[in-house]
Amino acid sequence: MDKIILIYPSLPGLDASNVILPLSLIYIATPLKDQFHINIIDQRVDNEWRHTLEKELHSGTVICAGISSMTGPQISGAIEAASIVRKLSPAVPIVWGGVHPSLTPQQTIKSELVDIIVIGDGEETFKELVNAIKNGTDKKTVTGIIYKNGKSTVTTPMREHFSISKIDNPAYDLVPVERYNFQPFWVGRKTLPMLTSRGCPMRCSYCYNTQFSHRTWTALSPEQTLTLINRLVQKYEITDLSLLDDNFFVDLQRVRGICRLIIDNHLNINFHNVNCRVDTIARIDDGFLNLLKRAGFKQLLIGMESGSNRVLSRIKKDSTLEQILTVSTRLKNAGIRSFCSFMAGFPFETIDDIKMTVLLMNRLLTENPDTTVFKLQIYTPFPGTDLFDYISKRGMRFPASLEGWATYHYDRINYNGFNKQHRTFLEDMNSYTIFLDRKLFNSLSKYLSLVSYLYSRILSFRINRGFYSCMYELYPLKILQKIRSWL
């Protein structure tokens, strides 16, 4: 049987003992599994992935090698894998897909390590492409790709977005599930990922989904969702599922239907990583919140982003500070735990805006200690988004090649435009706020956990009083943060 190699690149600094299944490749491979031998090489869990790749390239007929990558440091692992394929098997087409190639297809195709790009959702596109390669037919008939044709490139018409409901039984067994031991610190047990929907119709100006999925959204029906839950629970004997939906709550009637089916079928499942929005929770009543809790949705992941109404408006978040505070209280009263994420470093943001965000983070923890607040993330400009265009029009420069994008880092500012004081304050807050929620350090040794707890109190005191000067503890705390990343 002819072979397809799919490669999932690693992320530098990632804890290889606590990674999630490569669902993107599983979904891409599922429609092809009965026609081809699929080999998924995951750099995150296979320390010998180079040897594995070499072995696969030298055995059997390889139709193509597919590589998926986000914008940023994941590109480094993707480039290394593509280099190996090109060196050992130069005749094997290298197909790139995923977020970054889809956002920058015209630039990415210029790399000598890229032959073809699948743009956007790839389940149908990749299947048609693979068969065209195998049969030697014209790739022009495959919509949704860009490919090299001699010294020129060919871009085919855009394909309609794929409906995830067409794959209601993703082939998890294409990877060794037992090697993936994803245990969020707040769970303490192994969880499996699943998708019930894909995409998001909202207009957030920083989000890659506005360009990648063009604000479309597709979903499994409540009945399909229940079937998938039952299948995963029975096959893998788990009680915890992590939802990787971009926005689980787009269709509230669908959510209500899923909850009722779970309750009616007496399933005792805990759902984690359930993405929702502040304005959505603000619209639903307390009865709906109770239904969610009864069905196992006891934890919600909320992108609150900023404590400044001005910034929330500029990033088109369609929520307010007042809504955030109200929603936090309502979820607390409903017995649903909030997991809150925040972001700073927007081009129009001031230091005072950042201080308002950090103050809100601290306030949420003070008013509800069960809330989890992740550290302040630094805004990453994704090509094609409104904010990226805004920055570009003001003269900011971005990488001019695929290889250049590998230097993007999620914990630093990736574009110029801030003075030294602003940049230093933002990066300091990115480092400091990881200590704000001491629950994030509960898994460390008693000594490190105690140090983290003590500093979380000091940091809270500083934030409440706006005292950010003379923070000499920054350097030892950064060392502690590095130690945490090693453990």
From TrEMBL:
Pfam families: B12-binding (PF02310), Radical_SAM (PF04055). Keywords: Iron, Iron-sulfur, Metal-binding, Methyltransferase, S-adenosyl-L-methionine, Transferase. The keyword Flavoprotein does not apply. Residues 186-419 form the Radical SAM core domain. Its cofactor is [4Fe-4S] cluster. Signal peptide: none annotated. Residues 1-140 form the B12-binding domain. SUPFAM superfamilies: Radical SAM enzymes. One of its GO terms (molecular function) is 4 iron, 4 sulfur cluster binding. This is Uncharacterized protein. It comes from candidate division WOR-1 bacterium DG_54_3.
